[in-house]
Amino acid sequence: MIELAGNLIIRDGKILLLYREDEGHWEVPGGKVEESESPTEAAVREAKEEIGTEVELEKPFYSGEFQKDGEMYLWHGYIANTDDEPAIQEETFQKMEWVDPVELDDMSIAPNLDMVLPALRKIK
Fold this sequence. Notes:
Largest sheet: 7 strands, mixed
Order of helices and strands: EEEEHEEEHH
CATH class: Alpha Beta
Helix content: 10-25%
């Protein structure tokens, strides 16, 4: 099983999403948990690597399993804050947008976000 950690960064009721053309979906900043770190450490590290910001994890949002391309994943999502202005740091991502949760129904989102879509719609 592959363990992942991600950040739900919310500002003015909108969620920060990054678009991956190679995957054809929008996702939150995050990635694989390395062997020597906890999921919370991975979430903080990935935000710095992907959007160049220091984040403060406010609270856990969800931890759960999903399957993609025959692989099993365990995703830990955290509500996070940043005072910095995020900017794409990696070529993996082509776009970054602040998205109102009601717009998620019309977007192609990552499987980990799709499994928590009802909860995401309630974010304010």
